[in-house]
């Protein structure tokens, strides 16, 4: 049974020391002297308030919902149930608002104001007398220190506010209370949110209190002087530092200001040489007054100029900051960097790593910046002579020699239209359209005359040269063909040597800059060119390869702009090839396959064109018939291509080895006695073996050997022996390419056997050259094999970290909290958390705002009441005054009346 | 009503004179373009025969109208049909049966009729052998019709007709007809496959026919007919589809066993004949599904299969499945089976078109976990050696195959991962390298020392030119988390299929823009601008230019 309320009250009073044994008079007096009394009083008040609160049942708010099972619920006992004291919190909030919001309201639309930070002003524990005493003590201390008038150091240390070079003499008493920090606080107030500001100010106040009380109070008697010194020294130090920083800032600002004119000029894109300043020196030597007079109008001028510039800037087109022209070294370095990047990309593609999206984006940005570079070059080209030749050399990418493709390269990197050159572009387009309207075919002369002026600036100069160089019979304009037939139609009357010129003119005429449709047209044109290459090679009268080569290079440069079109054209060709004639390739197919090896990176792990091309080659080598010499020649070409494809990536091709060894076995003068390896042997139907009696000399194979033709016996023998040497040298190169393969021995042991057999066959003198070749290849193979043996180690493939055994035990959460969300999806959990936080914050802010509003309303009401009361009071006073006066006047009147009556 | 000529041919005594009349009618038939008239003439003749015996001579007339000389290409089919009707009626009426009690002249008539009937049959056979396919088929149908009538209405003639008589003739005609593809297919589809008794007797005929060595063409035909009979009756099969009315008491016809026995005999007769290599292969190909089910005693196939297995090459591959069937079902003991199997892994295996078939079987043979590890290792090593020279479609099979081996025979995993613990050995290795301990020439798979070796070949294939193949080869160096790969998914790939997978049948929009070589080479074919590089040809394509003139 708890004790009664009265007993409880008494007990708690005694506990908190409010009631205690009576103090003697001496003690009381002592306490009063040392200020303990005031302290005690405060303490007692606080304790009493606490007791009152504790015993007031209305101050405590019961929890809205009684927790039912204290024993089972996790936080049944630990919650603040029963301790919620709305009254207290409310009053706290009220107080805080009064301290911040009210102040703000009051100081609204007002500037300045003083914060009273006099020593001990807001300290309720100090009596006014104590405060006065304290202040006096500090003052006198300061005086004491200042007494030595020769203390220069101190004087210098002293921080003085100045304005326009004159010291701001503040009142001596206020001086040491002033803190620069306060000013700064005031300044930054506006920027800060209200809430935050509240905290800051609270903190500031608290610090002040701590500074003053915490240090000063405990041992006030002993070390007051020292403490004060310390405090002051500290504040001075801080002041000094702040001042220093401010000065630095000012210096910096000045410097920046000085550079402002330069900046203006830079903005306008014109770089002027630094202005000579001769006049200034004159001014310095002059009479200052006169100098001032002289400078006066100048100032006005500058202001005027400033205004003008400002206006100019506002009306100016928005200009981009230009990059300065790069030096040769920088350009070279950049180019090297770009090439390195490209090479790295290639290697990554070779390994089959995916370029991540981020990197692609990065690349995109890179390209963007490159774009801009190129743009600027281009833009300059309109005013300045183009340095395209130079830049081409630096690019290291030698393009179509007679045609400036640099413009092309710009376009390939991005499809963004060039906003800078829009006006120029429009002009060009206009002229182009005019040109279109002119009859194309009819009036060649006019076209010839007009073209150079109409052509793009980059192409113009070179185009003229080309026109002059080529024979004058060529037309200057050609329509961009839509299909191969129309292209053939176009080329019908053109000598084959001029085909590249025609292509170049078509490209120049349909430059994508000139018309928006041209991009699509050129894409189609690129496809046609691919078709044309194979068409040309398939023709019975093969054109010179320099023509094919130049067309292929055109295709390549078009491929940079239209990779999809060109790739699609190549793929279409491969598709037709694999469907119609997978095992009997035409010369055109071979040329196309060669073209693929140059246009596309054959080292890629996967490539939309190269991979099928590989498969086509491998299929041919693996399954083709090998009966005639022409078959073997095509095979030799295909095997060389295979090796060419693999020069960079060094991937292994079983079909290559099979075919080469089989071909060698078939061509060797005598049949090998036993099976020489695991490669499948396919013997040709009619013997194509070298006859050991005839003399034959090997030569370099020619592409026309691919086309089967009847040869005289001697030429046939020559072809055979050259095939043998070619295959041998292919094996030679292959052994270099695949030297690092772990199964090198297994791959090339059969090759060695075959070569030995060949050497055996070539013993007679008729094959001296072939024998030498074979011997040297054999030596190389032997060396490679020996090295392969040396480097061979047992495989060590599974050095993985052992996999963890999958556990089926459910994952138990220790200290599981049902309120917490254990979402395995990290992102979702995060977003949920953020949402909840947002909601909570929002609610809190709303509540705060609502409370603020009601507080403001309350305050306003209070003010109004005060005002009203004041008014009332004033009114009453006035009324009373008037009445008073009236009364007096009435009295006077009465008296006068009485006097007059008395007189009478 | 009867024409004057017919009237004159009434008497059988004037048989000889009627012979003179027949050509005239034939001539008339040829001369007269009116086809309907010919038809009506035939109809009249036929009706007369049906009317009375007096007109039997019309039969002779009709036969002569058949026009079956070798030179004549178009026999008179209408005549043949009507004759068939005539004989059917006669047989049904019993006019072709001799009764002992019959009068002498009756016997003479019957004998004469029989003679005519034989003559008619010969004519039909001639048609089947010589005429065009439509006539052949008609003749076949008519012949079979006669067979049916004979077996139903001439009691006792049953055996006679099937084994030696008319059916034998028909069968031989069918087999030997020079241009008889249609005829044979008709025979097979309409009679042999349709009617079980026809099939039964056909089997008999075949075994009889193939008892002597025949030419390969004929054998081809026989095989075609036999292999067409692919519906082997189940043990409790009830035979119901008979062409002729079969005596229910006829046990032989009703039992499955006797049918199968006949078929077995037929097949054996063919297998013992001198088969060509390709026939042997095709037989082996259908062995399991078409031939073996017919056999009551499959062990009879043993000789054929072992012979084929020893031939080597593709034939061995094909014999394997049949042999496996025998080993599995009939407990055939095949000494050194695995050694033989190992020897089958030769150069051409992976390029052969029976590759997937072989791999399916090989998978079965090696699926036992009780096989010695050394043996499995030999197979693994041998396969990986072969993979080094194999087309991508074969590599794609081999690697998962090897993976499965490693999974089921963990002892073999040393071939992928071998840490050298012995310091001495490691130092040796460091100094001298090593040779492959595997002995490829050893024929006994348990002694090849393959388990001491490593599969460098597969590791090399991880850099195969085809990205998918390389990716598959890479599974052996990753953790073996998958239980097993399903071989079926890897078996039937081809170059064509792979190219198609890459290119598709038509251009689709590409997911990624293909990368283009950033550097345009100075020269592709020619020596253009060579002096600019100091005369030294390097860069892209220099390899090709070094080997070829363009």
Secondary structure elements and pairings:
The complex is a heterodimer of chains A (904) and B (550).
Chain A: H1 5-15, H2 25-34, H3 36-55, H4 86-106, H5 128-146, H6 152-157, E1 162-163, E2 166-167, H7 172-175, H8 180-189, H9 194-216, H10 220-258, H11 260-268, H12 279-285, H13 288-315, H14 328-351, H15 357-383, H16 388-395, H17 406-413, H18 422-437, H19 444-454, H20 457-469, H21 484-491, H22 499-509, H23 518-538, H24 545-561, H25 563-580, H26 587-599, H27 610-623, H28 629-645, H29 654-667, E3 701-702, H30 713-737, H31 744-761, H32 768-791, H33 826-903
Antiparallel strand pairs in A: 1-2
Helix pairs in contact in A: 4-33, 15-17, 17-24, 18-19, 19-20, 22-24, 23-24, 23-25, 23-26, 24-25, 26-28, 27-28, 27-29, 28-29, 28-30, 29-30, 29-31, 30-32, 31-32
Chain B: H1 4-8, H2 15-31, H3 35-51, H4 57-65, H5 77-92, H6 104-130, H7 133-153, H8 157-164, H9 166-176, H10 181-192, H11 196-209, H12 216-228, H13 251-254, H14 256-272, H15 277-291, H16 302-311, H17 313-330, H18 337-344, H19 355-365, H20 373-387, H21 392-408, H22 423-432, H23 456-461, H24 467-473, H25 488-491, H26 495-503, H27 542-547, E1 548-549
Helix pairs in contact in B: 2-4, 3-4, 3-5, 4-5, 5-7, 6-7, 6-9, 7-8, 7-9, 7-10, 8-9, 11-14, 12-14, 12-15, 15-17, 16-17, 20-21
